[in-house]
Amino acid sequence: MSTVSYYTAEGLKKLREELDQLKSIERPKASQAIAEARDKGDLSENAEYDAAKEAQGMLEMRISKLEEVYSNARLIDESQLDVSKALVLSNVKIKNQANGMELKYTLVAESEADLKTGKISVSSPIGKGLLGKKVGEIAEISVPNGKLNFEILEISRD
Questions:
Q1: Is 6 helix (H, G, I), strand (E, B) or coil?
Q2: Contact residues for 128 (Cβ-Cβ < 8 A; gap 6+)
Q3: pLDDT in tens, 45-73
Q4: At CB < 8 A and 24+ separation, what contacts does 129-134 make?
Q5: At how many degrees (to 10) do helices 9-21 and 47-71 cross?
Q6: What's the number of CA atoms in the CB half-sphere (13 Å) around residue 72?
Q7: pTM of the full predicted structure?
């Protein structure tokens, strides 16, 4: 059963580029490695051949998975999103009520999450807690070590 995944234009482009890279560059490399190993003689005792076939199988499995994800990918239409609430693609500035620390996150699809760049998944505990909240509201979020309360300071879109 395939599931629909939502992507930004940037995330969809990265997915397409990775798929193209695997098909046009990695696939020929795997075939070449098998051919080179085959040329070395007896296949029944050729560990290099077995390893190359195994690597090719893993590569084909990855390509197949990416093709399925890409075929079920949907582009998020940013013009249709409500700017008054925290939704996917919202930049949300929050304040931790316990320590007063202010944080800014961009809510993105799970496949595009990258904490280093401030992008958190809408399916993460914090992302789920922020979804649908408006400026001034308090988001009570359950995390593994208890509950955190965040005040929504600002919501914007780039």
A1: strand
A2: 122, 141
A3: 778 888 889 999 999 999 999 898 888 88
A4: 130/86, 130/92, 130/94, 130/105, 131/85, 131/86, 131/87, 131/107, 132/85, 132/86, 132/87, 133/85, 133/86, 134/84, 134/85, 134/86
A5: 150
A6: 11
A7: 0.60
